[in-house]
């Protein structure tokens, strides 16, 4: 069984159980939106020694938790499971996700940094992603950036250093052309 060196931050027990079926891994559970200062401090300490990967549900509460951790803990890695792969019978979440989607998310972690802008707002607008939800979701998927609106996509593209040229090349490979 493959070992993950970083500690994976998840929302709950069932998320931890699923990860432990797939990997030799240690997790920290946020207890959903019940994430408190004590848990944030634990995540911060873990990031200093082993690093952390944030893997939250692809929904609004998951995004809030991810943003809270990102704000408090520098240099987190992020793993994203697509919404379509995380829908169960009654819930949406990591515990409901298919195992291959979770593996793909762990293998394609990204690190956000506050570096200089890699794509300008003007270039982003010129890609015509805002008016085309299918194209926007394709860009999220191609670069393993999770799910969100156009503004979030713009922010994440800059945080991981993806340029207009890189987006155009990937879209072209996928059969999108202007």
TrEMBL record:
Subcellular location: Cytoplasm
HAMAP family linked to this entry: RNase_M5
Keywords: Cytoplasm, Endonuclease, Hydrolase, Magnesium, Metal-binding, Nuclease, Ribosome biogenesis, RNA-binding, rRNA processing, rRNA-binding
Name recorded for this polypeptide: Ribonuclease M5
Family named by the database record: Belongs to the ribonuclease M5 family.
Taxonomic source organism: Faecalibacillus intestinalis
PROSITE patterns found in the cross-reference section: TOPRIM (PS50880)
Coiled coil (residue ranges): none
NCBIfam families in the cross-refs: 5S_RNA_mat_M5 (TIGR00334)
GO molecular function: metal ion binding; ribonuclease M5 activity; rRNA binding
SMART domains reported in the protein's UniProt record: TOPRIM
Gene Ontology CC terms, in alphabetical order: cytoplasm
Designated gene of the protein: rnmV
Described purpose of this protein according to its UniProt entry: Required for correct processing of both the 5' and 3' ends of 5S rRNA precursor. Cleaves both sides of a double-stranded region yielding mature 5S rRNA in one step.
GO biological process: rRNA processing
Matching Pfam families: DUF4093 (PF13331), Toprim (PF01751)
């Amino acid at each position: 069984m493959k070992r993950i060196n970083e500690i994976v931050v998840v929302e709950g027990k069932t998320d931890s159980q699923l990860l432990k079926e797939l990997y030799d891994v240690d997790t920290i559970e946020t207890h959903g939106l019940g994430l408190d200062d004590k848990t944030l401090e634990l995540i911060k300490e873990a990031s200093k020694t082993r690093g952390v990967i944030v893997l939250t549900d692809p929904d609004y509460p998951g995004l809030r938790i991810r943003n809270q951790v990102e704000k408090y803990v520098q240099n987190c890695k992020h793993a994203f499971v697509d919404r379509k792969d995380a829908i169960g019978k009654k819930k949406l979440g990591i515990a409901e996700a298919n195992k291959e989607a979770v593996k793909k998310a762990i293998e394609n972690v990204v690190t956000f940094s506050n570096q200089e802008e890699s794509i300008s707002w003007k270039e982003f607008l010129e890609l015509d992603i805002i008016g085309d939800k299918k194209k926007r979701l394709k860009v999220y998927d191609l670069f393993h950036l999770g799910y969100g609106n156009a503004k979030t996509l713009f922010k994440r593209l800059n945080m991981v250093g993806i340029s207009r040229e890189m987006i155009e090349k990937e879209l072209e490979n996928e059969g999108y052309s202007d």
